[in-house]
Write a structure and sequence with these properties.
Length: about 80
């Protein structure tokens, strides 16, 4: 997945032209992204895929507030 449109701090350790798995992008954006990153994610990745990634995420409890915000506000 192309990461150039997301905030640079989310993927600082990756090459800007790297093709990153959508699951990694979902986790990084929800955990550390700004609202504009979350909106972009919701536009670029299918809702079912985002929710499936969240459900498999081992650190759900740690990022509970971010996940809840994303589900209620961004995905509606």
């Amino acid at each position: 997945m192309d990461i150039r449109e997301f905030s640079p701090h989310l993927f600082w350790s990756y090459d800007k032209d790297a093709d990153i798995k959508p699951e990694i992008v979902v986790r990084q954006v929800i955990a550390y992204g700004e609202i504009r990153d979350m909106i972009l994610l919701a536009r670029r990745v299918e809702k079912k895929k985002i929710l499936a990634t969240i459900n498999l995420w081992k650190e759900q409890e740690k990022h509970k507030k971010h996940i809840n915000f994303f589900k209620k506000v961004i995905l509606g």
